[in-house]
Amino acid sequence: MVEPGGQELLANEMRVRIGAVPHALEADDLPEYSWQLANGQFLLRTRGEHYFHYRRGEGVTIERGEGADASEEPLWLSGSVYSAVASINGFYPIHASAVCHEGAVHAFTGPSGAGKSTLCTALAARGLALFCDDTLVFDLSDPERVICLPGHKRLKLTEEALALTGAARQEKVGEAIEKFYAEPHALYRGGPLPLAELLFLEEGEDPRIEPLRGAERMVRLQDDHYTALHTAAARGFDAAGQFGHLATLAQRITASRFVRPWDQARFDAGADYVYSHIVGTCGKGEA
Amino acid sequence: MTALAKMTDKFSETRIDDEYVVMLLDTGEFLSLAGTAGAIWSLIDGTRGRDAILAALSDEYDAPEEAIAADLDEFLATLRGNGLLAEA
Q1: What is the pTM of this model?
Q2: Which of residues 41-70 of B touch A (CB under 8 A)?
Q3: FRET partner for A85 with CA separation of 20 to 30 A, picked from A201, A270, B60, B66?
C-alpha cells in the first residue's frame, strides 16, 4: 500500500485560476515559448501574452493576454506546468507514458515521436490500465521503492497513431499541433504505485526486450527533455549534482530497451510482445 | 615508487551493477570502467604505484605480469590523458 500524499499534494498545487502574473522571474525578459524556474516559482510564456505562473503553495495562475489560445491550456497544464510543479515540490518527472498491471507501473520512455502514447493506447486496448501519458512523476522518498504518481490520461495521438491503434479521435490538441486527444480503453483511477520497470523504446525488425546494465542504463537516463531541465533547475544541480541524481535513478530503476517494428503492418506484433512481457512479469517490482 | 592517485576534483563516480561510471566534470563525458578497467580503477588509491597495481592484477586474474603490463599502461595513459591521474 502506498500513501496518496504526493498525489494529493500535486493535485492541490495544480489548482488553476485566471489573473495577472509577473512577466519575468529573473532579470531577463521571457521570450515566447520559454520558461523560467527560480525560488519556488515557475513562469511559462507560450504564444503572445499567454502566461502560466506557479508559486509553491499558491497554485497556478494563467494570464490570457493578447494572442492567448485558451484551447491549448490543458496541453500546457498537463505537460510543462505539471512537470515544473512536480519538480518544485521535490518529485522527479520524466518524459514517459505508463500502464499498470497488478499493482505495479510499466513505463515507456523515448524521444518525442518514439511512440510512447501510441504503445500505451494499444496496451490499454489489450486491457492494461493507462497510468499516465507523457509525464511520469517519481517520488523517491521511499528508499525501498520508486513510487509513481498517477498522471494525466488524455492521450495525444497523431493521425498515424490513431490509425495504428484504432483509438477514437476527439478534438485537436491545439491549432498548431497535429495531434488529437483520444480516450484510452482502460484507465487507472487509483493512487500511487511502485515502478516495475522503465522501457526505452527503439525501432527494429523483431520485437525484443533487453536489460540495460551499468553505464548504459545511466547514460540512457540522461535526457534534454524539459522534465529533466525542470528537475535540474528546481534542485540547483551543477554537473556533479546532475551526475548524482542520474546515478540514484540508475541504481534504483530496472530498465530495458524494447525494440519493435514501427510500421503499421507489424505494430501489433510489438504491442502483443510487450503485453505478454508485462503480464508475465507482474509483481516483480523494481530492483 | 611513485604512487598513483585520482584527481578527485576532476570527476564524479558511481558504481552501477559491476561497472564504475565516471563523469569528467569539465566536459560531461562519461567513462564506463568494467572488467579489468574497473579493477585497475579500484586499485588506484594513492598508495600503490604502477608496479604494485600490476602485481595485484596479476594475482587477481592469475595472469603473468608480462601479459597484462601493456594493457595496464595503455589504460593509465588514457586516465592521464583525461586528467584523472596524479603521481603522488
Answers
A1: 0.88
A2: none
A3: A201
